[in-house]
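ping. complex inputs:
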Amino acid sequence: MAADMDASSVLDVRNLAVSFRTDRGEVPAVHDVSFTVKPGETLALVGESGSGKSVTSLAVMRLTPPAPQASLTGSILFRGRDGQVRDLATLAEHEMQAMRGNEISMIFQEPMTSLNPVHRIGDQIAEAVRYHRKVDRQAALDRAEELLVLVGIPEPRKRLKSYPHHLSGGMRQRVMIAMALACDPSVLIADEPTTALDVTVQAQILELLKELQERTGMAVVFITHNLGVVAEIADRVMVMYAGRIVERGGVVPLLKHPLMPYTHGLLRSVPRLELAAFGQAKLEAIRGNVPDPTRMPQGCSFHPRCDHAELGRCDRTIPILEEAEADHLVRCHRWRAIASVEA
Amino acid sequence: MMVKAVDYLEEDPVLTVVKQPRSANRAWQRFRRHRLAMFGVFMIVLLVLATAVGPHLIPFDDLFIDIRNRFAPPLSGAHVLGTDPLGRDLAARLLMAGRISLTVGFAAMVISTIIGTVIGVVAGFYGRIVGTILMRFVDAILCFPTIFLVLALAALIKPSVVTITLIIAATGWMEVARVVESQIRTLRERDFATAALMMGASDRYIMFRELIPNAIGPIVVAATLCIARAILMEAYVSFLGYGIQPPAASWGNMLNNAQQYLGSAPWLAIFPGLMITLAVTSFNFIGDGLRDALDARLDVS
Amino acid sequence: MARFIFGRVVQSLILLCLVSMIGFAVLHLAPGGPLAQFALVPGMSQADIARIAAQMGLDRPLPIQYWEWFTRLLLGDWGNSYRDSQPVLSVIGSRLGATLQLMVTATLIAIVLGVWIGVMGAIRRYSVFDYLGTIGAMIALSIPTFWFGLVMIYIFSVKLGWLPSGNRSTVGDGSFFDYAYHLIAPSIVLALVEVAVWSRYMRSSMLDVINQDFIRTARAKGLPERVVLFHHTMRNALLPMITLAGLELPVLLSGALVTETVFTWPGMGRLFLDSLGYRDYPVVMGILMFSAVLVLVGNLLADCFCAIADPRIRLD
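pong. complex structure:
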């Protein structure tokens, strides 16, 4: 299979594109997305709702609707536990099932609705273990109990028999994490795992994820719209807008010296204390709205909302994703001009 | 069997729709594209025309008894659909029966819709005690299997076309009331009702001028399904001998004696049943199409 | 759960009072009232009728009459049949078994077929199967039950001679197979509409569940699609079906009456029609009330089963 993959990465996504079939024809949701993740690393995927970040993560898991409702192109190279590199984009469904929840797992935004209300949480965790490790029910339940201890749930033995509605949102998200970690995955995709939680609980869950990552060495793809959270846990950041990557780089350079006007805007609209450290404490909203995917503006999809847009250029051609400095990519016609003004 | 059955056809029984004239055009376009509904409209138009004009074109009177031509099978002579045990022309009887069945269905629908709408509006508008009592009352009536109730009433009251219509209407308004009540309850919370209230409009004005026009979509759907139900119900009671009385024919009472001739003259049973099924299916298709067409949630996507 | 069930019992009792008032109203508000039948008897004078009315307590104010009627109802004294002077409740009891047998069989057919059609339709949404299922259900809901019965008899009894055209058993043959043989046609006829209803409900319930977040979680766990569908989706989608079984009771009872008439099935529905013919009002009223109470109790039971099956209610 496609084996020409950087030896240090565990996940290498290349030219990923996803589009959905609707009444009004094919609607593209994600274009030309490429990124890599190394073991132990946290990549943050940032963007407003509708930017394509969730679709990207679902596509990596191959959880987007099957063809013909959705089409998925590009490659998703993944290094398995056995050292083999597979392209998840072309794997047969039953082979993909063997990967999902086993070597690559995902947790979701809504812990309140992401657990099946009619099954005990012990069984829901054990299920993943039983299908991937082919162990009996009791062994799987023992493993589930271990996992509950790992994610810091008190009285794990008792909790195995609980139903989801007995648990708080934070506890349910811990259960979701336990479920995702059941088979020691090498990549964990977390789709806004803290958005629906109280602020104090958010911090606990973030702390738990960091700690678990240190312990297991797994790679984490963390999807969020909250740059405060990014500052706290990410090693590298990828900003998406209207289905495209608009800026990608290490967390410090990107947050300190954002190049794309959109990233600037995002930073200014975050009211978080952590960001004061990066000298970005002023609070402003980006004017306008995310464009409708069926009516994308010509040229740079951000130009109607951009203060730096140059008529005749930004509204004509889509800028390419170019390397501004080492490991810092930006998709903007005018980043040089903007950077020189700001400096 | 019949009764509430039509409700189950749809995935979302509650229509949370506010119809504004603006979207009427779009709803109409959606309705036009609904193939089953258009089939239903076509069939109903055809049935109405046939029952209105047909009897004048057929060379036989529906009550003319021709004892020498009893049990003539279809396509065997002058009688296209054959004759009944008294030698009456089946086609003529079917069309005359259609007049009665369709009229009873339509009239019962109008009465049911009026009763249901008034009770639903009052219950939904006043809410709390009045609303609760009325809606519990609706629940209580729905505990009675409809046929039992209709038959008991039909047996107690002297049967005629008018009383049968009234009885069917009196036992068929509850679904309309439920639909209207839930509509009004949500509409009442909307701004325009509050605005009218602030302007000092009377309760009656708000209910009939502000709320009902905005609930008209679901009422139309419920009314369409109500005709289907009423036609079926008339067929049931007449079949059982407590509905339309001979010599007047209805599709139901034409089947009344058909069972005993099932071996010798099966066409007596086949044709009236087909007519009922055709009419009821058509109205159900139309109701389904209207429900899809008037569902404003589709406008959003 | 205890609180939930207590609440439902109280609700049902309130409903029972309303139901009894409606029954009483039907009896009294129809022209002629309970005495209508005597007016038809030749040689009965106005004075005679008044005397009977007084004897039966019909000259007293309606609320008092209602109260007495209602208390007797609760105590199980439902009056005697005019026809054979048997207590109404025991007359009904002697016919109840046949009706229940028919209803239960039809419901089982409806559950098996309806759930299957609904699940397949939801999984293969917009497929040919789904489309045919949808249209088929709408047509099935539009076919008059009695006519379907006649068509069944014509095809399978008159033409093919495979099935009996009526009755519960052959005289002189009381074997299980004989009963089952007689049960086939009427239960299929009664089941037709129910299959349609169950398949529509099951389909929409499946579609509701399939779009829930926890189904995505199940897929993300790497479970085979079969497990996602049966263990996660169907398990949840079946819960509201328990309530449906209760809600369908009045429809099923109405259908049973018609089916029993066509197939000369000795059940409650036929008894009702016969009693109407004899103007045997105590039995008519008795069956009317009995069927409503049956519906009431059925719905209460369905909700209780639902509470037991759903951990969200059971454990609260």
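Chain A touches chain C at residues 61, 63, 93-94, 97-102, 105-106, 108, 110, 113-119, 127-128, 131-132, 163, 165-166, 176, 179-180 (CB under 8 Å).
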